[in-house]
Amino acid sequence: MSAEIQFKQGKTPLGYLLIAAQAGELVYAEFGETPGSLLSQFRHNYPDSNDRPSVDSFLERAWSAYENFLQEPEALYQIAVRVQGSEFQQQVWSALLRMPTGTRQTYTSLAQSIGQPTAVRAVASACARNSIALRIPCHRILRSDGALGGYRWGLALKQRLLNAERRFNEARRAQSSEATEAVVD
After folding, report:
1. Which candidate in 120, 138, 141, 161 is catalytic?
2. Which of 36, 107, 112, 132 is the most exposed, having the fewest neighbouring CB atoms within 10 Å of its CB?
3. Annotation says 127 is catalytic
């Protein structure tokens, strides 16, 4: 018997969100227009899940990481995740999981990095099928011309996420520079 799928939903600074976990791993995270639409979509994908939201320490930690993403994006990337998809999708998502916070890559370079240089459209499709928002950072992938391209949860959110990661990296570099200067003095 497999572990029960637990879920939590509500409003975050990034919008309405529903996350789900099974056996201490995040398996689902979707943004949506309304709590009802999120719950309906989740029920379609996981018909055997709990009937009601759960209170679970892992879910609470994951929820907190989503709520605080704009200030501390790296906390989310410490959350265990389990993805389900085709072998190709898993290759794409695994490559995304290895990207450092704040980095950006093009669909073309992502396809090249997984050894599939002609599979640019398939890479874009795998990004669009990602069902673990932010934790699998598809928002870091741009078109070859530098434009945002698409994003399953909207281009405005994609831009907010990229900006948050950029600010986080700038603050981290500034702290590192200050620490280096303090040691040199």
Report:
1. 138
2. 36
3. no
